[in-house]
From TrEMBL:
Lineage: Bacteria, Bacillati, Bacillota, Clostridia, Lachnospirales
Top-level taxon in the UniProt lineage: Bacteria
Keyword Glycoprotein applies: no
Record's keyword terms, sorted: Glycosyltransferase, Hydrolase, Transferase
Family the UniProt entry places it in: Belongs to the glycosyl hydrolase 130 family.
One Pfam family cited in the UniProt record for this chain: Glyco_hydro_130
InterPro entries on file: Glyco_hydro_beta-prop_sf, Mannoside_phosphorylase
The keyword Methyltransferase is assigned to this record: no
Record-given protein name: Glycoside hydrolase family 130 protein
GO MF annotations, alphabetized: glycosyltransferase activity; hydrolase activity
Length: 361
C-alpha cells in the first residue's frame, strides 16, 4: 500500500518541548490525540518527563502525591549500588529483579498532556506549559496516550490514567481546549487503548477497549456500549492476536485512531505488536450499523517502523497512532515514533480499501 511520510518528519521532538520544571528533562513527545478546532490542527500530545539525575548511581522517580490537600510532585530516589534486588535495565521502569512485568515498582517518567497547534498540519507550535497535569488520585504515575472524539460541540478526551494500582482509562471533556471537565475513570485497570466512536450507533455510544488479563487470555480488543459515555457494558470480544507466530501482530493488539465513517463503513486504524515489541499499524473496515462486524482488514501493516526516527529513539521500532484526520479521500495519520517524537503520514482511502482483504459474512 502506498503511504507517504511527511518530508518534515519528525514534526515534534523532545528538543521542541519546554520541561514543566527546571529539574526535569523531556524524554518524549508522542502518541497524540488529534482534532481540528477553529481552523487549526490540534495535537494533544503525551509529554514524558523525568528528573535530571546528577549521580549516575541514582535513579530518580517523579510521582504525584497529595500533601496537605494539594497535589504535588515528589521525587523517589533509588541508589543502584544499594538495591541489588531491583532491575534498572529497562529505562522505562524500576522492577523487582527476575519478577514479572506486573511487579513494576515505579515508572521512570511522568507524562502529562500538552497542546500543539498548526495552521497547515505540518509546522506545529507546542505550548510552554501542560494543558492537563496528573492528579494524585487518578494519575499519580501519569497520563498517557490521549484520543479525542468530537461529538456535537464537545471534544471528549479519553486517556490512560496510571497509578500504582494499574493502568485504567479516564475521560475529560472540553469545548475550547482552555477549560477541561474531568469525568473520572471509565474503564478500570488494566484497560487501555480505548477509542470512542464519534456518534451513537443504534442509540448507544460505542468504544473499543483492551483489557489485559493477568491469567487466561492475551491483550486483545473488545467492544463495549454506553448510554452516557460514563457507564460501559455489553462487552464483547472483538479481535485477538494472530495465531501465526511469525506475524506482525502476534504479541498484542489495541485501538489506535478514533474510527471514522466512509460510504463503505467504519474505518478503524489500529496498532499491533509482535513478540519482540515491534509496533505497526493496520486497519479494519466495519459495518456501519454494527461495528462488531468486520467486513475487511489489511493483512500486512499499512505503516511499519522503517525510517531511522522510527527505529531509533527512547523505545525503538515503534509506530503508534492515537488519531487521524480525514479530508475527502485523504487520510492523515499523526503517530508516535520510537516513543519520543511525533510524525505524519498520508494515504488515499482508495489505496487502503484496495489493500484490504474482504471477509465473507
Amino acid at each position: 500500500m502506498k503511504i507517504e511520510r511527511c518530508v518534515y518528519n519528525p514534526l515534534l521532538t523532545p528538543a521542541d518541548v519546554k520541561p514543566s520544571r527546571q529539574d526535569f528533562k523531556i524524554d518524549g513527545v508522542f502518541n497524540c490525540g488529534v482534532t481540528e478546532y477553529k481552523g487549526e490542527v490540534i495535537l494533544l500530545c503525551r509529554v514524558a518527563e523525568s528528573v535530571i539525575c546528577k549521580n549516575e548511581d541514582e535513579v530518580c522517580i517523579p510521582v504525584v502525591k497529595k500533601v496537605d490537600g494539594k497535589d504535588e510532585i515528589q521525587v523517589i530516589t533509588y541508589r543502584k549500588s544499594e538495591c541489588p534486588q531491583l532491575d534498572f535495565s529497562d529505562t522505562r521502569h524500576v522492577s523487582k529483579r527476575g519478577e514479572k512485568k506486573s511487579d513494576i515498582l515505579n515508572l521512570t517518567s511522568l507524562s502529562h498532556l500538552r497542546i500543539a497547534r498548526s495552521k497547515d498540519g505540518i509546522h506545529f507550535e507546542i505550548d510552554e506549559h501542560p494543558a492537563i497535569f496528573p492528579l494524585a488520585e487518578e494519575e499519580s504515575w501519569g497520563m498517557e496516550d490521549p484520543r479525542i472524539t468530537k461529538i456535537d460541540d464537545i471534544y471528549y478526551i479519553n486517556y490512560t490514567s496510571v497509578t500504582e494500582n494499574g493502568a485504567g482509562t479516564s475521560l475529560i471533556s472540553t469545548k475550547d481546549f482552555c477549560t477541561f471537565e474531568r469525568h473520572g475513570i471509565i474503564f478500570a485497570p488494566e484497560n487501555k487503548d480505548v477509542t470512542i466512536f464519534p456518534q451513537k450507533i443504534n442509540g448507544k455510544y460505542v468504544a473499543f477497549n483492551r483489557p489485559v488479563p493477568g491469567g487466561i487470555g492475551n491483550p486483545q480488543m473488545w467492544i463495549a456500549k454506553s448510554p452516557d459515555l460514563i457507564h460501559w457494558g455489553e462487552q464483547r470480544h472483538f479481535c485477538g492476536i494472530s495465531s501465526d507466530t511469525e506475524s506482525w501482530d502476534d504479541g498484542r493488539i489495541g485501538g489506535g485512531a478514533v474510527p471514522f465513517l466512509t460510504d463503505k463503513g467504519w474505518v478503524k486504524i489500529y496498532h499491533a505488536a509482535d513478540r519482540n515489541d515491534r509496533y505497526c499499524l493496520g486497519a479494519f473496515l466495519l459495518d456501519e450499523k454494527d461495528p462488531s462486524i468486520v467486513l475487511a482488514k489489511t493483512k500486512d501493516p499499512i505503516l511499519e517502523p522503517q525510517e531511522k526516527y522510527e527505529t531509533n529513539g527512547f523505545f525503538g521500532n515503534v509506530v503508534f497512532t492515537c488519531g487521524c484526520l480525514v479530508n475527502d479521500n485523504k487520510v492523515i495519520i499523526y503517530y508516535g515514533a520510537a516513543d519520543d517524537k511525533i510524525c505524519r503520514a498520508d494515504f488515499e482511502l482508495d489505496d487502503l480499501f484496495a489493500a484490504m482483504e474482504y471477509i465473507d459474512i
